[in-house]
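ok so for the tutorial part 2 we go from a plain amino acid sequence to predicted structure tokens. step 1 is just haveing the sequence, like this:
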Amino acid sequence: MKRIIAAAALLALAACGKDEAPPPAPVTPTPQVIPDAKPEAKAPEAPKAEAPKADPNKELASRVKRALEDVKLVGIDASAADGKVTLWGTTSTDDERKRAASIAAKVDGVKSVDNQLKVVKGS
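step 2 — the prediction. this is what the tokens look like for a chain of 123 residues:
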């Protein structure tokens, strides 16, 4: 019995003499169980309103005006209906009047040109 007490005392003394703390026990991660996420109920979406379609007649008239402005023929207005373009306004010469009609006729989508331009000297 003396031997057991002596061995226990030696072990106790040996344990007390250490300056270091025992290393922490390794931690093993435990798998987490994530519950299935339930989708939130949403109100039904209203059908998206389509953007109003551009008026093809206005688009054609606008293209004709740009074509005339590109060649420095300004002050001429244009309207369109189903491919028929009408030119309004004034020019200073008959050549400008004819040139405007010719340029308008070359714009994509123009089927005919009604030239209502008036020649006014000094305009």
